[in-house]
C-alpha cells in the first residue's frame, strides 16, 4: 500500500559557519550552531510519518541555493527548494533562467532583517513580480510590524503565488495580537496569498510555552486564510530551540483534529498546489 504523502513545507539545512551564520547567537542558540543535514532529519520525519520536505534558504547567497539543490538531487524526500536571489540586481530574468532547476520552486529574502521601506521599494516589488513571471513562488519572511509593507507588496503582485512564513512572526511570548490580527485578516482576503503554519514555538516563551499560547494565533490564521491556504512547516532545526520536532507537528495536528479540518489539506495538498510539487 502506498504511503500517504505528508509534507513539511519549511525546514533548513546548513553546514555551520560561525562567520556566515552570525545570526545564531552563541549565548541563546548554541544548540543549533552545528551542521544540520538530511541524515539528521530523516529519522524525525519517519517517526512523524512525514514523507517529503521543502528546504528553504537560510543564507543569502547563490552558493546556498546550489547547496540545497544538490541535497535535493541526492535525497528524494526533499521535494523542492526555496532559494535566494538578489531581486534588486541587474538582469534578473536572465539570472532566473540560468538558475532554473526542476526542484527549484521559488525564492525568499530575509526581509525581517531589512530596514523600513525595503519591502515597499518599487525595485524590490519589480523583482518579486519577475519571480512570478518566471512561474516561481515567493516566500515572505517578516516580523509582524512589517505587515503594512507586505500589504503594499501583495497589492502590486496580484494573482501570483505568495506565502507568508511563520504567521509573520507575531509576538506570542507577550500575547500581543490585535494589530497583527487586523493586518493578517486584510492579507487573508487576497486569494493567491497563503500562510505557513510554522515558526510559532520560537515566537513563544522558549521554555514555558504551551499549546494554549499558540491557539489564538492559529485560530486567526485559519479563519483569515481558510483551511485551503494554510500550509504546515516545522522550521526545523530552528524550532528545536523551543521544542522537539514531534511537539511542533503534534500542535498543528491537534489543532487540525480539534477543529475538524482536513489533515490532507494542511499537511499535503495545500503545499502541493502552492508549490506545484511534482510528487
Q: Indicate the proportion of strand residues.
A: 5-15%
Q: How would you characterize the largest beta sheet?
A: 8 strands, parallel
Tally of contiguous helical segments: 9
Top CATH class: Alpha Beta
Write down the secondary-structure element order. EHEHEHEHEHEHEHEHH
User: How many E strands?
Assistant: 8
CATH fold assignment: TIM Barrel
What structural category arises from helix and sheet content? alpha/beta
N- to C-terminal distance: 16 Å
The figure for the number of domains is 1
> For the CA atoms, what is the radius of gyration?
17 Å
CATH superfamily: Metal-dependent hydrolases
Low-confidence segments, given as residue ranges, are none
Strand sequence of the main sheet, in spatial order? Answer: 1-2-3-4-5-6-7-8
The whole-number mean of residue pLDDT values reads 96
Query: What CATH architecture do you see?
Result: Alpha-Beta Barrel
Shape, please? globular
Helix content: 25-40%
Amino acid at each position: 500500500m502506498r504511503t500517504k504523502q505528508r509534507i513539511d513545507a519549511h525546514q533548513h539545512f546548513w553546514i555551520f559557519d560561525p562567520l556566515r551564520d552570525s545570526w545564531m547567537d552563541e549565548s541563546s542558540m548554541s544548540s543549533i550552531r552545528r551542521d544540520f543535514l538530511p541524515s539528521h532529519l530523516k529519522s524525525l520525519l519517519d517517526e512523524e510519518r512525514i514523507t517529503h520536505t521543502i528546504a528553504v534558504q537560510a543564507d543569502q547567497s547563490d552558493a546556498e541555493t546550489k547547496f540545497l539543490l544538490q541535497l535535493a538531487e541526492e535525497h528524494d524526500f526533499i521535494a523542492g527548494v526555496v532559494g535566494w536571489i538578489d531581486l534588486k540586481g541587474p538582469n534578473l530574468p536572465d539570472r532566473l533562467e540560468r538558475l532554473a532547476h526542476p526542484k527549484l520552486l521559488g525564492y525568499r529574502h530575509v526581509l525581517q532583517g531589512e530596514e523600513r521601506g525595503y519591502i515597499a521599494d518599487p525595485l524590490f516589488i519589480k523583482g518579486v513580480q519577475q519571480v512570478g513571471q518566471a512561474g516561481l513562488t515567493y516566500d515572505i519572511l517578516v516580523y509582524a510590524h512589517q505587515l503594512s509593507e507586505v500589504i503594499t507588496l501583495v497589492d502590486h503582485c496580484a494573482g501570483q503565488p505568495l506565502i507568508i512564513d511563520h504567521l509573520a512572526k507575531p509576538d506570542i511570548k507577550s500575547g500581543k495580537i490585535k494589530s497583527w490580527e487586523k493586518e493578517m485578516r486584510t492579507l487573508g482576503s487576497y486569494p493567491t496569498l497563503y500562510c505557513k503554519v510554522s515558526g510559532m514555538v520560537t515566537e513563544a516563551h522558549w521554555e514555558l510555552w504551551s499549546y494554549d499560547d499558540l491557539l489564538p494565533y492559529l485560530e486567526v490564521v485559519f479563519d483569515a486564510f481558510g483551511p485551503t491556504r494554510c500550509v504546515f512547516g516545522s522550521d526545523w532545526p530552528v524550532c528545536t530551540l523551543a521544542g522537539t520536532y514531534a511537539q511542533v507537528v503534534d500542535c498543528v495536528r491537534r489543532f487540525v483534529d480539534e477543529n475538524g479540518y482536513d489533515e490532507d489539506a494542511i499537511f499535503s495538498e495545500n503545499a502541493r498546489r502552492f508549490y506545484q510539487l511534482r510528487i
